Amino acid sequence: MKIPKQEYTPEFRGLAVNRVKSGQSISAVAKDLGLVEQTLRNWVKAADAGKLNKPGGKVVTPEQMELSRLRSEVIRLKRENEILKKATAYFARETL
């Protein structure tokens, strides 16, 4: 299963970048907002270059952002569930 690409609103990106520029560490902000650290680093780099919120870019509503996040979480949970099933089967065979 491929994890769907998450989309974030320009306001969310700006908020995240502002928190980093106000002195918080990238890792702390990423963890707090549920982001991958590299994504946040890319946003900070884009903001420094003036390309964070491109004009004419795709507008993402908060609902679309939440839906994207939930879809990726469902895929992650399904993968974890498969791992647990395999581990249970493995250990069940071992005890026989």
What does this structure look like?
With 96 residues, this protein is mainly alpha-helical. It has one domain: Winged helix-like DNA-binding domain superfamily/Winged helix DNA-binding domain (Arc Repressor Mutant, subunit A, Orthogonal Bundle), CATH 1.10.10. The model has no long low-confidence stretch (mean pLDDT 84). The protein has helices at 10-21, 26-33, 37-48, 62-95. Helix content is 69%, strand content 0%. It contains four helices and no strands.
Keywords:
4 helices, Transposase_8, Arc Repressor Mutant, subunit A, 96 residues, Homeodomain-like_sf, mainly alpha, DNA binding, Transposase, transposase activity
SSE layout and pairing:
Elements: H1 10-21, H2 26-33, H3 37-48, H4 62-95
Helix pairs in contact: 1-3, 2-3
